Amino acid sequence: MKNVTIYSTPTCHFCHATKEFFKENGIVFTDYNVSGDSARRDEMIQKSGQMCASHFCR
Q1: Based on the structure, what is the number of domains in the chain?
Q2: Whose CA is closest to 18, among 45, 58, 53?
Q3: Domain range for residue 43?
């Protein structure tokens, strides 16, 4: 199975819905809260080119 990484924020309803879907379907994921972690936020921006929270599958 692929390694799923989620860059999220506590107020993002898309993030909550995605994480809930993964949990309901037994998909293991790593969640990084980018609102409180500037290093992960920078990593997210570097990978996606976006400032908004994103979801990545590797």
Answers
A1: 1
A2: 53
A3: 4-57
